[in-house]
Amino acid sequence: MTRVIFEGKRTGETVTETFNFISRLAAAETINSAVVTATVYSGTDASPGAIVSGSATISGQTVTQPITAGTLGVTYKLICTITTSLSQTLLLMAFLTIVPDQN
């Protein structure tokens, strides 16, 4: 499974993260559906799925997902699962760490 590391997110931010499937799709293949899930990679958060805000959005060969809140110091594993026009199911995994707010 392909992995990426997103820039750290502050607890007070809501950011939109992008999962790029361009290198995994055939020339005319499109993304039919996408879902992003979150689990804890390191640290403690009883409700890791709560950082995923709303639904994923498909635009061409990319999927975007708003991410909100989170627990300071926790690294989350985000998995974007897509189904394609050629009946493939593809996954892209990313790591996102919640960093301190800077005043």
Protein architecture, described:
The structure is a single chain. The chain has 103 residues and is mainly beta. 0% of the residues lie in helices and 54% in strands. The protein has no helices and eight strands. Strands 1, 2, 4, 7 and 8 form a five-stranded mixed beta sheet that branches. The radius of gyration is 14 Å and the shape is elongated.
Fill in the keyword field for this structure.
103 residues; mainly beta; three-stranded antiparallel beta sheet; elongated
Helix-strand blueprint:
Layout: E1 2-5, E2 9-10, E3 14-20, E4 31-42, E5 57-59, E6 62-68, E7 75-84, E8 89-99
Parallel strand pairs: 1-8, 2-8
Antiparallel strand pairs: 3-6, 4-7, 5-6, 7-8
- Unreliable segments (pLDDT under 50, ≥5 consecutive)? none
Tell me roughly what share of residues is in helical segments: under 10%
The total count of helices amounts to 0
Radius of gyration: 14 Å
Number of strands: 8
Taken in chain order, the helices and strands follow as: EEEEEEEE
Give a short account of the largest sheet: 5 strands, mixed
Estimate the strand proportion.
Answer: over 45%
The assigned structural class equals mainly beta
CA-CA gap between termini: 37 Å
Shape, per Cα inertia axes: elongated
Mean pLDDT: 95
Entry summary:
This protein has 103 residues and is mostly beta strands.
